Amino acid sequence: MASIGQIIFWSMIVVIILLSAIIIIILVLAFSGSRSSFSTTTQRGDIVANFGEDAILECRFVPDGNFDTTEITWTKEGVSGVVHKYVKVKDELKEQNAQFKRRTSLFLDNISRGNASLKLSEVESKDDGTYTCTVSNTKGKGDTCVILRVGAYSSPKLSLEGNLSQVLRCEAPRWSPKPTVTWRDNSSANASSVSDTSIEDDGDGIFKVTSLLKGVKTNNKYSCIIQNQLVRVTANAFLRGSGIKEKISVEFLNSASIPVTHVIFLSIILPLVTSSLIS
Questions:
Q1: How far is residue 172's CA from residue 178's CA, in Å, rounded to a whole number?
Q2: Non-local CB neighbours of 161 within 8 Å, separated by 6+ positions
Q3: What is the pLDDT, as a whole number, of residue 2?
Q4: Cα–Cα 20 to 30 A to 194, which of 4, 7, 125, 202?
Q5: Interaxial angle between packed helices 4-36 and 271-278, expressed in degrees from 0 to 180 and rounded to the nearest 10
Q6: Closest by alpha carbon to 146, among 134, 138, 156?
Q7: Which residues span the membrane (predicted)?
Q8: Over 50: is that where the pLDDT of 32 sits?
Q9: CB 251, CB 230: distance < 8 Å
């Protein structure tokens, strides 16, 4: 028969094991909660921006309900300083790189709703690159990357030339990088072999596109497709008598379209749980 001392000893062992199991469960639950409590949202694919226009670099997070504790920092790979910084309910731009002076802003009225998106005005070619949005609040800290691809694109203008043997002109003044031109006829077959295309560089890396499709006929549809690695613009021409009915469509290639959520797993200190273990 076990002695009283043995009974007390094994009872203490069982109690210690049970307490240890309870503590482990508490830690797992607490840590799991902290890992899923902070997330950022960005856009799937790259963002394509047109020279001289504005671009929105999307970044969203789960707010903590405390507007004063939210800090937002935008940086760009390969560029010193910050693109934009927001601390203590105001912009903090002392460390802003000169490239972005007076060209960045946040949507201040929407930060409390988890919007940390950056507006970049009058986009330039050197703005092309990878940006990082870092957000922190009482729930933790996380970051996500946004890729901005900068180029130039413009919608083609279509017009008819000639009398008996008509020529369909497709002209677009601003493209970069250098594009290609493809013609398709009424049956969607490639008709580029009966076209003359000119792509001229204006000296600043911006290309003017002029393409002529020969032998077009009325009551037919023709498509002028201008494309580079960033964007594809299709101009559909429906020839009716001596007139043209146009339809333009724009497709950004590998660009942002559907938001995707990235959950940032954080290492967060849990002081209440830690103190119970130490004591």
A1: 12
A2: 167, 168, 169, 212
A3: 58
A4: 202
A5: 160
A6: 134
A7: 7-31
A8: no
A9: no
Would you state the pLDDT for residue 164? 56
Could you tell me which residue, 277 or 107, shows the higher pLDDT? 107
Q: Report the alpha-carbon distance of residue 64 to residue 45 in Å, rounded.
A: 28
- Residues 6 or more apart from 165 whose CB is under 8 A from it? 214, 215
Residue 277 pLDDT > 60: no
Cβ atoms < 10 Å from Cβ of 98 = 8
Q: What pLDDT does 67 receive?
A: 75
Cα separation, 8 vs 4, in Å, equals 6
Percent of the chain at pLDDT > 70 equals 78
Q: What is the 3-state secondary structure (H, E, C) of the chain?
A: CCCHHHHHHHHHHHHHHHHHHHHHHHHHHHHHHHHHCCEEEEECCEEEEECCCCEEECCEECCCCCHHHCEEEEEECCCCCECEEEECCEECCCCECHHHCCCEEECHHHHHHCECCEEECCCCHHHCEEEEEEEEECCEEEEEEEEEEEEECCCCEEEEECCCCEEEEEEEEEEECCCEEEEECCCCCECHHHEEEEEEECCCCCEEEEEEEEEECCCCEEEEEEECCCEEEEEEEEEECCEEEEEEEEEECCECCCEEEEECCCCCCCHHHHHHHHC
> For the whole model, what pTM was predicted?
0.71
| Domains, the chain, with CATH or none | 40-151 (2.60.40.10), 157-252 (2.60.40.10)
CA angle 257/110/32 to nearest 5° reads 75
Q: Give residue 32's identity as a one-letter amino acid code.
A: S
